[in-house]
Amino acid sequence: MDQWSRGFARLARLGVFSGLLLLVAVMRPAQADDRDRLEAFLNVTGFDVALDSIALMASDAPDMVGIRAEEFGYRWKEVTEEVFDRARMHGMALEILAGTLDDDLLDHAVEFYATPLGQRLVEAENRVHMEEDDTAKREEGARIVAALREEGSPRIGYFERMNAAIDASDSAVRAILEIQFRFLMAASESGVIDGPLDAGALRALLWENEDEMRDRMAASTLANSAYAYRDFSDEDIRAYTRALEAPPMQRVYELMNAIQWEIMANRFEALAIALGTLDRGEEL
């Protein structure tokens, strides 16, 4: 499960799933002009790349149910590409944003991320999102953190404030656990896991490790920040921290993170269902 707790440093706060789904149910469809503005918003903030990076986590899904991706042969690649289709995920995000992100919040976020500093930050974050070697990133980030602590750098404090602002409601861990729960329940219902799972027992088992996962994730997000922003000055990091701490920006992140978590849960449920239709070993 540790793999699921990495790679979330930029978008790490859950808006309540049920509340988000109620908003989706009543929101109006995005009009053409709105859609163009929202597409531009996704691009300038880097949220489009964050959505694309969801597909990179698919490789960890079989481990959750005790099987290997290789058991599905070439069909594994086909299924994951279909389930994590970028156009589908972007469309889901746009439809939700159209009913939840008001113009003032959109303008506030774009005003910062469209600046030279904002675009440099997005470029750096996008690169990190799409790097697949989590181990190398984690180790290099941990090395940077250790060096910063040794020299008494103020960057550690900025990174901690930055991550606290992004996850002000301390909900990222609960979001990951909820995604795991929904994936495993879907895997059970689709026959990927032998025998039915008891929802209450599974939830209790997963949440038993909540505090431990929170500690691991705090260390992971700190290392990820140190790695992602290693080429930025202290002044740049301070400016970004203050931008993230602004209440309108926190509301923007609340919405973006809620959307990403829901799309992740939706797509991993779909993956579990799709895996139930495949015959293991026949396509090797």
List keywords for this structure.
15 helices; mainly alpha; 284 residues
Could you explain the architecture of this structure?
Pfam families: DUF2059. The protein is mainly alpha-helical. It is built from 15 helices and no strands. It has helices at about 15-25, 30-45, 45-50, 60-65, 75-85, 85-100, 105-115, 115-130, 135-150, 155-165, 170-190, 200-205, 210-230, 235-245, 245-275. Helix 2 packs across helix 6 and helix 6 (about 85-100) packs antiparallel against helix 15. The longest helix is centred in the C-terminal third of the chain and has 29 residues, at about 245-275. The radius of gyration is 19 Å and the shape is globular. Residues about 1-30 have low confidence and may be disordered.
Radius of gyration: 19 Å
Cα(first) to Cα(last) distance is: 27 Å
Q: Into which percentage range does the β-strand content fall? A: under 5%
| Helix-and-strand structural type | mainly alpha
Mean pLDDT: 84
Number of domains: 1
Helix content: over 70%
Order of secondary-structure elements = HHHHHHHHHHHHHHH
Uncertain runs: 1-30
Q: How many alpha or pi helices?
A: 15
Count of β-strands: 0
Which of globular, elongated, flat, extended, rod-shaped describes the shape? globular
* Major sheet attributes: none
